[in-house]
Amino acid sequence: MKALHVLGLLGVVAVIGIGGLAVSGKLPVSVQFLPPAKPAVQESSSLPARQVPKLSSDEQGLGTPEAFIAAIYVHYEHHPVEGAPSFDPAFDQAPSYFDPDMLALMAEDKRLTPDGSVGALDWDPFCGCQDVVSFKTTVKTTSLSANHAKVVATIVNMDFPEPRPSGNENFDLVRIAGKWRIHDMGDPHVPSLRQIFINSNKSQAAYAASSHAP
Length: 214
Known about the structure:
30% helix, Nuclear Transport Factor 2, Chain: A
């Protein structure tokens, strides 16, 4: 009997609720449907930054001078894949390839260059170009001693229907703590990248001094 009594009360409540809906067009507060709760958003860490591939022993300068330069030019054999780690040996990744003297000149160039301006180096010295190209290289050591070497990279541009020779890049290498590093480099148009930085830094320093003179 108690069960029938309870069911009877529920029926009355239901009738009252439906009657309220017919009159007001709204569900009574006691039986309004609440929107489903949003699932909790789980905090997730952002995707890890793309890492530049670990340098091989040759690219670290641990092998021969010829292997060191050849390992750099492997990155130029194909156009970079979209989204792939960038390869920037003359700028962000310069510490992996140049000796302390060149790095000091590069740092001074950066310090002297006004914000928003381009420094002494506005091209890729490894190919003598500004646009991304793909090319093949032949690397040869022309001089070698315990801690010094000269290497020539002969470049062939592969972006033309017929491969087109692009000239030579000459490298003056030094061995520091067992690793080969670039002390200077150049081509027929820019014989010495080192001298470019020296001249530019001197001019920039003179200009800065004159602009602050009373």
